[in-house]
Amino acid sequence: MTIKVRSAYMDGDIEHPAAYEAAIRARIKANASKTRRKDWFAKHPDAQRLWDWLYGHGEFEDKFNDRGDSVNPNPLRNGMFSGDFGGTLLEMREAIMEWGGLTDKQTDLVRRALARAEERVANANKRREERIAADRATSQHVGTVGERREFTLTVGKVFSFEGIYGTTYINICKDADGNVIVYKGSNGYEEGETLTVKATVKAHDEREGVAQTLIARPKVM
Predict the structure, then answer these.
(1) What are phi and psi of 74, to 5 degrees?
(2) Does residue 128 share a domain with residue 63?
(3) In which domain, by residue range, is 125 found?
(4) What rounded mean pLDDT belongs to the chain?
(5) In the Cβ-directed half-sphere of 188, how many Cα atoms lie within 13 Å?
(6) Partners of 185 in beta bridges
(7) Across residues 11-37, what is the average pLDDT?
(8) Which residues contact 15 (CB under 8 A, 6 or more apart)?
(9) Does 198 reside within a domain?
(10) Which of 107, 136, 165 is the last residue of a domain?
């Protein structure tokens, strides 16, 4: 579509006619974008939710700490710009910025991508609940608080975060009996490896109904 603009500069009243015409065209485009966005929202009841998902707003917003660091990325947006839909979703964001909304076909594509993400998260949550239920049934506290003893551990998940004293690692392990043993400190072990350490039983704790034994100052044997 060609936009015809007739303005005062045609009579010699505007000092910079090219810039003036560009501003007029931008204003026309912005108004058209607002109209298309309004029409998109009116036609598709879930348009706001799709918008929020693409841009990380509302229910899809990450959680941040006082320093502005993301501490809990929203699982429904984790990896959304990679894989089968990744590049296309980026194009959809650009289309919204450019045109104010999406076509019916584009809207359905984003809707299906969100449904796939929700299914992935639901399956992950189900597996997690099953794992926690199994741990509740098997894990018991090991040793006595203050005791220094040997542990043969298989490292499960390892998490890390940065603090004023450097990197802290949280190693979630299990012994041969399925007891959950947790070490939090400056050492991060390899996920999946099995190692024997001598460590002090720091505390007996419980998380989500799972008995955990916290250890300190582990020394690999």
Answers:
(1) -65, 125
(2) yes
(3) 44-136
(4) 84
(5) 12
(6) 169
(7) 60
(8) none
(9) yes
(10) 136
Same domain, 152 and 129: no
Considering its fold, how many domains does the chain have in total? 2
Cα(151)–Cα(118) distance, integer angstroms: 39
pLDDT tens by residue, 71-127: 567 889 888 877 666 788 999 999 998 888 999 999 999 999 999 999 999 999 999
| Torsion angle, alpha carbons of 42, 43, 46, 47, to 10 | -70
Tokens encoding 30: 């912005």
For residue 67, tell me if it sits in a domain.
yes
What span, in angstroms and rounded, lies between the C-alpha atoms of 199 and 96?
Answer: 56
For residue range 144-167, what is the model confidence (pLDDT) as tens digits?
Answer: 999 999 999 999 999 988 888 789
Q: Which residues make Cβ contacts (< 8 Å) with residue 211, sequence separation at least 6? A: 139, 140, 141, 179, 180, 204, 205
- Total Cβ atoms within 10 A of residue 201: 20
pLDDT class of 8 with cuts at 50, 70, 90: very low
Sequence-distant (≥ 6) Cβ neighbours of residue 49 within 8 angstroms:
58, 59, 114
Q: At 194, which CATH number?
A: 2.40.50.140
In this structure, the answer to whether residues 131 and 163 fall within a common structural domain is no
Last residue of a domain, one of 136, 171, 198: 136
pLDDT of residue 70 exceeding 50, the answer is yes
In a domain, 128, yes or no: yes
CB pairs under 8 A, 24+ apart, for 104-107? 104/43, 107/40, 107/44, 107/47, 107/50
